Known about the structure:
single chain; mainly alpha; Sodium/glucose cotransporter; two-stranded antiparallel ribbon
Amino acid sequence: xxxxxxxxxxxxxxxxxxxxxxxxxxxxxxxxxxxxxxxxxxxxxxxxxxxxxxxxxxxxxxxxxxxxxxxxxxxxxxxxxxxxxxxxxxxxxxxxxxxxxxxxxxxxxxxxxxxxxxxxxxxxxxxxxxxxxxxxxxxxxxxxxxxxxxxxxxxxxxxxxxxxxxxxxxxxxxxxxxxxxxxxxxxxxxxxxxxxxxxxxxxxxxxxxxxxxxxxxxxxxxxxxxxxxxxxxxxxxxxxxxxxxxxxxxxxxxxxxxxxxxxxxxxxxxxxxxxxxxxxxxxxxxxxxxxxxxxxxxxxxxxxxxxxxxxxxxxxxxxxxxxxxxxxxxxxxxxxxxxxxxxxxxxxxxxxxxxxxxxxxxxxxxxxxxxxxxxxxxxxxxxxxxxxxxxxxxxxxxxxxxxxxxxxxxxxxxxxxxxxxxxxxxxxxxxxxxxxxxxxxxxxxxxxxxxxxxxxxxxxxxxxxxxxxxxxxxxxxxxxxxxxxxxxxxxxxxxxxxxxxxxxx
Length: 505
């Protein structure tokens, strides 16, 4: 009976998301509507959409799993870095990007960079679009993988089948409703995610024997409840968490400056004066959500200690919330419905990120590559068709990449996050706040930052030691250095560009 209740709850949730897409399907009159919602987003929708699209499945699966196995140091420093990055992004980037992009009539991040620097060849458009596609595909794949894991671990449903159904729903409402559907569903999904965190946390603490028992268990484990060491769940030992590890982990926060799907929210808000309220809502929600996610890892380990849960090793630790939801469902019909909502929360975390990513990829192909770089004259109808076709293609490749059920959601997300932060982060900051920056510097910075992510991840990082740092940090620094140096050794921007820069202050 409980399983039926869970399935019905999830089906109703998925149907509701598709209905939202259908409801907004007739409001997309042109590409600006489809990609940015006509720049008419309110402060609450803007804030929660930005953070829901950021807090992907790793919030409810990856981070609790990491805390469960290693203690609070790694997820804790990651959370601190992300919280600081969120606050700074809203504080210094949001207002200026909204004003600057509106002045230039830019509807995508690559298009903004191209118009900002008067890039007549549209090289920035093309390179930016390619980078978005390259790194969004694995990001989307991580979302599909999370959905597959969820249904497989809970119902024993075939992993591939579960993943395909989830992908079809996400693609469905994104294709139908565009940006308005995506942001509206993001708001709903952030609420469902919040409910999931609260329910799991409350139930887990009770089953584990109370908060005191959870803390006592954590304190008994070597290196678990400290920010300067990492616990090894397999051996029971601890390893030092060095200053280099801390800096490397906190570097996650730098990624915010280069996330196309988050930057689009800044460009879409109706009134830049409302960004202050959006910033407060977004920052508070992020801090609370990540703190709850880490504590759930602690609580899960406490539940394992009392025998309520089996020990979850490796990537199976990422199914912690799924296992807890399964236990909740055994306490009657209402509890089963609640469990269904918790699982819908995991779907929400996944969907809210995947839909934003596919929309950004769609705009990159249709707007940046086909029309601006390729100089194809597409009607609004043709442009929207190209965008929707891109969404389908990205999802197909994402499904292929996510076919391995043992893939780590956190691992995939961290690489894609580094890719965007390294490619766009420093360049976007220079474009917004450094008058001397030019298109040659921006192009070189994007290219070198993106390449450095691959070089560091697959060549340098395996060397270990000081080289084992998160690839985002060296990629961001290289991108910044290259952007500055190349800009200074090439011709200065024209008076027209400087005038536009000053007008956006």
